[in-house]
Amino acid sequence: MANGIATVWMPVDDMARALKFYGETLGLTVKNEGEDWSELDANGVSIGLNAREDTHTESGGGAILTLQPDGTLYDELVRLTDAGVTFVGEVADRPWGRVASFKDSEGNDLQLYEPPSE
């Protein structure tokens, strides 16, 4: 039985570029940094940046990392857009919350999530 998330692994092609994106652009705390593996803290969840294996060079498909901003979804969308992030489509309004989709520097799928207002 799984009892929680230990680490989310994100495959990357360029570690320096990925660290800049996750550390500077998204504002996550870099816990350790290496050539083939780096780790960030996302409010208690570890995100591992793993150098992409030679046998897995495609950046499509796979897990989607969903982040919850400190402030409003709109404010974070503006901040990230100003930092050069391009969002895919419009903000999706769902009964369970709002989602804005974008890609990281390595082509992985990410989302901003805002729970529904009460």
UniProtKB/TrEMBL annotation:
* Residue ranges of domain VOC in the record: 4-115
The family database entries (InterPro entries) matched by this protein are listed as: Anthracycline_SecMetBiosynth (IPR052164), Glyas_Bleomycin-R_OHBP_Dase (IPR029068), Glyas_Fos-R_dOase_dom (IPR004360), VOC_core (IPR037523)
Which regions span the lipid bilayer? Answer: none
Coiled-coil portions: none
**Domain of life (superkingdom):** Bacteria
Q: What is this protein called?
A: VOC domain-containing protein
Please tell me the species this chain comes from.
Mycolicibacterium madagascariense
Organism classification, top ranks?
Bacteria, Bacillati, Actinomycetota, Actinomycetes, Mycobacteriales
